[in-house]
Amino acid sequence: MNSPLSPLKPRYGDRFIPSRAGNTWHLTYPTSPSSTSSDGGRPTTPYKKARETSENNKDGSVVYSCLLKNEVLGYQYEDNKDISSTEKKSNASRKLFHFDATERSVVVNEPWSPYSLSPISNKSEKLLRSPKKPTRRISKVPFKVLDAPELQDDFYLNLVDWSSQNVLSVGLGTCVYLWSACTSQVTRLCDLAQTEDTVTSVAWNERGSLVAVGTQQGLVQVWDATAGKQVSTLHGHTARVGAIAWNGDLLSSGSRDRFINQKDIRAPPAIPERQLVGHRQEVCGLKWSPDNQYLASGGNDNRLYVWNLHSTAPIQNYTEHLAAVKAIAWSPHHHGLLASGGGTADRCIRFWNTLTGQPMQCIDTGSQVCNLAWSKHSSELVSTHGYSQNQILVWKYPSLQQVAKLTGHSYRVLYLAMSPDGEAIVTGAGDETLRFWNVFSKNRSQKENKSSLNLYNSIR
């Protein structure tokens, strides 16, 4: 007869359950004190806190995850710079449940050492002590908004430009207005109402002293901004001039007549303009390369052409875009790198190696690409968009990771210009507003140049 088990005798099963009473996890991995929410006095979960401070908690969770990998899986993270999805320093030959006494020599800084004063390994200590990468914060709100009545909602025009003298030029209807970013003073440069003409494009020269004004009737007027007087007029086009680009004293203009005209403004009026023939529809984008050797042009024929200083025919022809190419930008950091954006039917930003003539990366933005501009201080670029999201996006290159998304315009963001210091941008839209955003930042080494060879930092 089997006697019942004594109540004082413990019952054993077939599983081993370790006792964790002696662990010091609360000392090793301290947690933040729980707060009480308003819904019934229940403590807030880490997920709610992560939503409130997503950026800080994301960094903390990554460090915590790497710390666990060091302690449990034998990873070798020592610095925050080592933390990335592509570079993981792991010990592939290490077995998780394998123990060998010869592998663990007595080291003071290791947790299995009897002389260790730390509950974590030396690698993890270095990881926690390593400096964190500063968090990049881009304000989602413009720091200034200006009214721009009669700013046209036309994809093919370029009505906003920012000079090297920190003066903004804007084409509004029949007039061109200048706004000083230093004094906030507004002056009217010209009015084309007497000739029954309208402004279709504006562009500053590199010195910031002259501004070229393209008109609906096909004229290109050159104005002295300081004196407020017209310097010259170019009559080579037969339709509106929607794109203008300067190269020193050489002025290039693109028109609805499908031609690109070039002329040195110092030349006498009797000398005809040089005409570049290639586009089959309106030319809506023009940009010179940083070394002033090559001109990139985009048109409504979905073509992107590259020209040199001497040829009247394009030396490179890119046909991958499926819509009009207005957004064009040369990289100031990578020689020969050209970025271009397509219209509503394309929605893509494409990158080209003009040294070899080969296409590179391509990313679908989901909306019409209206403008592109590279940062002057880092390998990043900003794009403005139209149908259907009317947004401003900041990208990292070459990863094409989206850094920021800015919204605020209620119409297509058709116009974009960058401040002379390269830190701020201004965007214009058919909602008749100009919005100023702090998007890019200088490196600390670039903010101050204390070289003794710089003659502009001191008075001799």
UniProtKB/TrEMBL annotation:
<dbReference type="Pfam" id="PF24807">
    <property type="entry name" value="WD40_CDC20-Fz"/>
</dbReference>
<feature type="domain" description="CDC20/Fizzy WD40">
    <location>
        <begin position="146"/>
        <end position="437"/>
    </location>
</feature>
<keyword id="KW-0131">Cell cycle</keyword>
<keyword id="KW-0853">WD repeat</keyword>
<keyword id="KW-0677">Repeat</keyword>
<protein>
    <recommendedName>
        <fullName>CDC20/Fizzy WD40 domain-containing protein</fullName>
    </recommendedName>
</protein>
<dbReference type="InterPro" id="IPR019775">
    <property type="entry name" value="WD40_repeat_CS"/>
</dbReference>
<feature type="region of interest" description="Disordered">
    <location>
        <begin position="1"/>
        <end position="56"/>
    </location>
</feature>
<dbReference type="InterPro" id="IPR001680">
    <property type="entry name" value="WD40_rpt"/>
</dbReference>
<feature type="repeat" description="WD">
    <location>
        <begin position="406"/>
        <end position="447"/>
    </location>
</feature>
<feature type="repeat" description="WD">
    <location>
        <begin position="192"/>
        <end position="233"/>
    </location>
</feature>
<dbReference type="InterPro" id="IPR015943">
    <property type="entry name" value="WD40/YVTN_repeat-like_dom_sf"/>
</dbReference>
<comment type="similarity">
    <text>Belongs to the WD repeat CDC20/Fizzy family.</text>
</comment>
<dbReference type="InterPro" id="IPR036322">
    <property type="entry name" value="WD40_repeat_dom_sf"/>
</dbReference>
<feature type="repeat" description="WD">
    <location>
        <begin position="276"/>
        <end position="317"/>
    </location>
</feature>
<dbReference type="InterPro" id="IPR033010">
    <property type="entry name" value="Cdc20/Fizzy"/>
</dbReference>
<dbReference type="InterPro" id="IPR056150">
    <property type="entry name" value="WD40_CDC20-Fz"/>
</dbReference>
<feature type="compositionally biased region" description="Low complexity">
    <location>
        <begin position="28"/>
        <end position="46"/>
    </location>
</feature>
